[in-house]
């Protein structure tokens, strides 16, 4: 049975994503009405440049006063696709206080202030949905929050930034260096003029904080996420990876400790075996691998960014929030009851691939091996290559804590026979 | 805020899946209570063999009278993991009429009677959830029904039967024939003693009917699904596939026509390029590729069967249904408003790989090519191999309708120079 009074949607921001949201709301109005159970109408669009002509959006809906729009009181759902912390945060809070539910695609804000925003939503008995904030079109928040609600997630391992995956894939397939691959990504529009947020892992870290919180039913702040960018990954690292049957990806990894009482979240480049499903994720695609007690290993794959894919996720949330509103109910809110400890990077346990430049003389391997042993880091394989008085040692360890590995590396640097630590890379996905 | 009166769950069936559901409900009771907002308790377990000792299930909960259990009136959610049409259908209907919502893993029943069951659920204002009915633990129903609710799905292409994927993967990797690979699957427990439902595609067809209905918001009956098993796939077919840079998978394919007014659903073996993400789905894993207007290409991957994975999906639904119940609401029901025509197999358009045994003499290729042309089927490539007076022709076509292809093959069989049609296989995923 169809209700005839339409639900009113206010759109904050009308850039690449917002304009797609508006377009689909118009062109698919009948489908959306059928799926929601009531028509849904665009009641206002807040923009910074009102003079710009926006195809399909009546000029009378356009306003520069976003605050007045969210305060109107007759808005059912506010869709926030401005991005950034302010004014988005204040606008969302104001929207809840004036009776609206909120759909947001704002990963930075959710990662930093998700708990506070959820609290305001709950006080006002409203929904806060944000599928689009992580991995664009890929359904991930809903599967973690709802489909796996009866399971125990132990690990989330994902490629959640398309720009860096494009660059690393290019380096892998062509042998290019970082700068060359970045230049191509920029030329093709996959990287922004200032690529810092992507290549230094800030974007992925925000997503890791959000995913870890949802997966483990606990709060993980952005500051809790260890972050290491991929600007120092070299063509030589890819050659080393290939020798191990691996490739290199920038991964967001959220893990529950073996005893279940603590979690960690981190973003860094890592080697993963070519046989791992994440290894074959090409170009700017995203994919997230989820491991849980009962379901086992699941993977979710798709476009991680772009106007239309992000709009698809926003509209899925919009339909859900509208249905909840018609039902007089709200969906699952923040679930942080587990209140687990977030451990520091030093406690993370994984494997390492370490390249050392060493003196080409007898006894070096014994010295190096002794240092590993003294720090409790067990060696899996060593490969030694020498030429012209110079030599390199490539050590792959068994699983060890990051703290033990750091101690080992510090001690190795002090050895006379070690001329330098050429690279250290974690090995994941085994 | 936690409600203290527990929600009551009746479990129908306590086999591989049911016992896992009961186990997780017990061992994860605290987590489930937190995630639902109220404790959830097992109020009864209907089984056929009451004498069997079931670890962790108190004997006083066990009954052979499933009907009395679903009629009790104090049951909040009935979990049906019996399988088959009857008595499951009557029990589910009775459960709705006596105030319970239902979570089911019953693909055969949902495919055959989904519309009728949804109608009873709706009349009684109750939920019918069945994530576990398709592709085990992989979240698929919920993403299609909710995450993509604001998008337009055009195609669903999936490996939804683990048994056949195990067999085909084995044939691909070892060069084994069908029978040899089936024997290994049986020995390892991947295939049942009577593998008909799997290898003849009945299981996949049920899932295709369910997926098509949800993806396209229309009704697709089991009879609407074209079905062809994989028992006639040979080692020679795999060699042909390899020559084309392909492998062979048993696919469930649900498509919307280009003009959007009709849909098709079918299950058959098909060649797909090795570069397609579905090509690398190994062993008994399942994966489903979804193509939509806005989101683009998404893939969902994971274990498609097994007690624990299926229980994970059942429990996700159980949490959702319990939350709805506490909210006094129901989730999205059947969405069949689009009421699209379901076209027959003849109207399906795809590419074909055809192997012919022909006489090794001049003019044969010209004759064969003429037949294709007369039926409007355009040839992409032809490969001719001859020895000892026998020859084979391998033809790969451009896209053509199934009806045109059938007409072509019928005419080819009548040619004196064509000794036999060795194999016909569709080529998908391009």
TrEMBL record, chains A, B:
Coiled-coil segments on the chain, per record: none
GO process annotations (BP): methionine biosynthetic process; threonine biosynthetic process
Reactions performed catalytically: L-homoserine + NAD(+) = L-aspartate 4-semialdehyde + NADH + H(+); L-homoserine + NADP(+) = L-aspartate 4-semialdehyde + NADPH + H(+)
Pathway of action: Amino-acid biosynthesis; L-threonine biosynthesis; L-threonine from L-aspartate: step 3/5; Amino-acid biosynthesis; L-methionine biosynthesis via de novo pathway; L-homoserine from L-aspartate: step 3/3
Gene3D superfamilies per record: 3.30.70.260, Dihydrodipicolinate Reductase, domain 2, NAD(P)-binding Rossmann-like Domain
Active site: 207
Cofactor (UniProt): a metal cation
Stretches that traverse the bilayer: none
Domain ACT: 353-426
A Pfam family hit: ACT
Binding site for NADP(+): 12-19
Keyword annotations: Amino-acid biosynthesis, Metal-binding, Methionine biosynthesis, NAD, NADP, Oxidoreductase, Sodium, Threonine biosynthesis
Domain of life where this protein originates: Bacteria
GO MF assignments: homoserine dehydrogenase activity; metal ion binding; NADP binding
PROSITE patterns for the chain: ACT, HOMOSER_DHGENASE
Record: residues binding L-homoserine: 192
InterPro entries: ACT-like_dom_sf, ACT_dom, Asp/hSer_DH_NAD-bd, HDH, HDH_cat, HDH_CS, NAD(P)-bd_dom_sf
EC number(s) recorded for this UniProt protein: 1.1.1.3
Binding site for NADPH: 107
Enzyme superclass (EC): oxidoreductase
Stated family: Belongs to the homoserine dehydrogenase family.
Role this protein plays: Catalyzes the conversion of L-aspartate-beta-semialdehyde (L-Asa) to L-homoserine (L-Hse), the third step in the biosynthesis of threonine and methionine from aspartate.
Protein name in UniProt: Homoserine dehydrogenase
